[in-house]
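Could you help me review a protein record that somebody else here produced? Here is the record exactly as it was handed to me:
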Amino acid sequence: MKNYSKNLECNLPIGTRIVGKWHTKSYRIVKKLGSGATGNVYLADSAHGQVALKIGVDNMSITSEVNVLKHFLKVQGQVLGPSLLDVDDLVTNSGTIPFYVMEYLKGIELIPFIRNKGEEWIGILMVQLLGDLDRLHRAGWVFGDLKPENLLVVGPPSRTRWLDVGGTTLLGRSIKEYTEFYDRGYWGLGTRKAEPSYDLFAVAMIMINCSYPSRFEKKGEKAIVQLKQAVEEKDELRLYQNVILKALTGKYDEAQSMRQELVEAISNRSSYKPRHTPKTRKAHKQKKEKKKSSYAVEIFLITSFILLAFVLYLFGQLM
């Protein structure tokens, strides 16, 4: 078996073949799927089809993630994360590097899915996500690094599945991995203590991110004012405004409460009337003026046609 150096920092070239030290299962690297604080994730070919393989130099972190995936199997209800298939070590010139193999989930990332299918899917998919988070929290864990990149929409029927569980943390401990935009600590709206409200803040930020795919940075000290304004400027977010703001300010203690109020907001969609912001008001005014102008032209043409017909009628009578 070929050896590899830890100095590669788990960056495996396409075509690399690795064999586990203990289970002797073989995997061939197809492409890199992503990377995080604890290692890199690759798409790999195996004897049983394509799989996702994560490799990292931190044995404790890898072991922790494996334990999380094992625990997911015991959580009742929908399957939360990918199924764990194998855990082994890769022999290198400097020792061994731990890795584990997961089910490869085929689907579309959250934001591209919503941009393709329509913004009404924001609420639907977040209701599903909150149901999964509720089961996770009741089992004693917080997802931690919750963001669109760690969510995949699979199906049919369409539903969200989790990808990287590297940030999953036991309740009561400090969040070990996070991304600034979805982190309430970055926005100055809470601590980084692992509790349900930390994940729920991230859900609200994911909803905002769906309408602002490029994201944006914090401006000034009053972050909640900035975020509230961002919500108010998008009609697709205004429908969920109360739910989003409550999550941003830590008003929910459990995912189920947020989920219920989100379901109620969705059910009120038929009676929802978009409120025009300064930006949308200008566009609405231009559209109204254009429609008015078009209507005037139409009236003029109809009137001219009637007058012409009347003139021709009189001319016919005189002849």
User: Anything to note?
Assistant: The chain has three domains: 6-103, 108-271, 289-319. The two ends are 107 Å apart (CA to CA).
